[in-house]
Amino acid sequence: MARTNFEQLLEAGVHFGHLRRKWNPKMAPYIFMENNGIHIIDLHKTVAMIDEAAAAAKQIAKSGRKILFVATKKQAKDIVSEKVQAINMPYVTERWPGGMLTNFPTIRKAVKKMSTIDKMTQDGTFDNFSKREKLQISRQRAKLEKNLGSIADLTRLPAALFVVDVQKEANAVKEANRLSIPVFAMVDTCCDPSMIDYVIPANDDATKSIEVVLNAICGAIAEGLQERKLEKEKEDSGEEAPAKATSGRTRVKKLSAEAVGEAMANAAPAPEATPEAAPEAPAAEVTPEAAAE
Q1: Which of 58, 52, 49, 112 is nearest to 87 (CA)?
Q2: DSSP states along 98-120
């Protein structure tokens, strides 16, 4: 089933690219035509690539891994934070912290500072500080919350990145490529698609365009999470019954083996058993080398 259709994308203005003088020649396969000096994106390819990216994102979510959304531009901040919070995925809408992926342990230490400060506030240690120290700690906590609060639950490297503007988030894309992390991205006509694993040719400047693409991707992720939840419930409900059935079958096998053993012990040996067993090791098959040993 298609996640989007041609009319939805056309109405949202996904087809509007940049001026011809700003274009990247590598985007030529995704450009339909030029109109008044502006490149028009081929929406038929956009629809197909959104569906491909959504299917891949669904499988990642179904496997229990995280997708990190990166969108620090003004037009995308609010939309990304709203849509991504609903599916419980990490996101970065403020400044991209350098080394977020390549120096992940250091970022985790900064995130742990927030939990340490929260713990101090709860157990009463925070009240023992002076007024000036309290102010400094509060400011530090607010700064950490602003920059890293949305990735507090990201305990390991994400399985993939979703980027709204490839040029603006160039550092994030480079770090992901260095670590071989797949990148999903909305790619405009002025961007380089060669560094992106799942290219979605689309207008990355219009709010409606960003929202349409995000709806498709986030909807697929939500489906993957729901399927994972249902599978876990089935596994939990069906764990005990098979175990009991297996143990029952095992007992039956043991009893039948014991019964057969007793019957064979009580039964008289068949007169033809010895002659049949004798030909199994005939003396003629023994080689001279084996006899010498």
Answers
A1: 58
A2: TTTTTTHHHHHHHHHHHHHHHHH
- Better-scored residue on pLDDT, 126 or 248: 126
Q: Residue 224's closest CA among 50, 53, 64, 49?
A: 64
76-99: pLDDT as tens digits: 998 999 999 999 999 999 888 888
- The amino acid at 233: E
| Mean pLDDT, all residues of the chain | 81
Which one, of 171, 178, 155, 3, lies nearest residue 65 by Cα? 155
pTM of the model: 0.75
Residue 271's pLDDT band (cuts 50, 70, 90): very low
Domains belonging to the chain, first-starting first, are 6-98+157-236 (3.40.50.10490), 102-156 (1.10.287)
DSSP single-letter state for residue 245:
H
Buried b vs exposed e over 205-214: b needs ≥16 C-beta within 10 Å? beebbbbbbb
Identify the H or E element spanning 200: strand 198-201
187 neighbors 202 (Cβ within 8 angstroms): yes
Whether the pLDDT of residue 283 is over 60: the answer is no
